[in-house]
Specification:
Largest sheet: none
Low-confidence stretches: 1-8
Distance between the termini: 63 Å
Number of strands: 0
Structural class: mainly alpha
Shape: globular
Number of helices: 9
Helix content: over 70%
Radius of gyration: 19 Å
Mean pLDDT: 91
Length: 231
């Protein structure tokens, strides 16, 4: 009995260590920026660093990406339906948030994502060559975010709070807040909008079989549509 309690305590401490290490690397690595490289290259460098940390800690915990949801869906029709559900739910919730903000006169920092996009990716207006040059990297980044923010973080937060009766709820909320904050480092319309996206993705992950493919596809569609809107 004592040995069993010790094992549980060790696992709890281990997952806490993993999360602290992962989040520390996630935020600190973004202080490293190579000005001679385009933003998307720096972004992939940041994601690759956190991916390495995640894979290291997964290896220590004897877990694989298949365990976290990177596996062939049992039904591609169901995958498509979940993907469509995500793509419908996200704009509805964002519009609802905007209406509530206006009704309550909530003052938030302005969304500067349009201006930021030009600074990060260059002027895409009528520049299809540039669009097709960077979109593969956008898609890779989209997939990595689902692997890490949903697959890894939700699972690790669940393990960390497994002694509570609402570990999954905490995990979904925390990853959404981190996801939103990481995209703008403030409490703004953009950070809350991205957090809503993370919340929908997180709910879809835990409610529909914990398969990452619907999330990856939906994320790629959202980011592709966003980039198309700038061409």
């Amino acid at each position: 009995m004592n040995q069993e309690l010790t094992i549980k305590q060790t696992n709890y401490q281990g997952f806490l260590f993993d999360i602290i290490l992962y989040l520390t690397v996630m935020f600190l690595i973004r202080e490293l920026y190579f000005t001679e490289l385009p933003f998307i290259a720096n972004g992939l460098l940041w994601s690759s660093a956190t991916l390495i940390v995640a894979m290291w800690r997964m290896r220590v915990r004897s877990m694989t990406w298949k365990d976290l949801g990177l596996r062939k869906p049992e039904s591609w029709l169901r995958t498509l339906l979940v993907t469509l559900g995500i793509l419908v739910a996200i704009p509805i919730l964002i519009i609802l948030f905007q209406q509530i903000s206006e009704m309550l006169s909530i003052s938030l920092a302005a969304d500067t994502s349009a201006e930021d996009a030009v600074a990060k990716f260059g002027d895409l207006k009528d520049n299809w060559g540039h669009f097709f040059a960077i979109i593969p990297f956008i898609l890779i980044q989209s997939a990595l975010e689902e692997l890490l923010d949903r697959g890894f973080l939700i699972t690790w937060f669940e393990k960390l709070f497994s002694k509570t009766g609402f570990a999954t709820l905490i995990a979904v909320l925390l990853q959404a807040l981190i996801f939103g904050f990481r995209h703008s480092y403030d409490i703004s319309e953009r950070s809350i909008t991205v957090a809503i996206i993370g919340l929908v993705m997180g709910i879809a992950y835990v409610k529909f079989g914990r398969n990452l493919w619907p999330l990856i596809i939906a994320h790629c569609v959202l980011n592709t549509a966003s980039m198309l809107g700038k061409v």
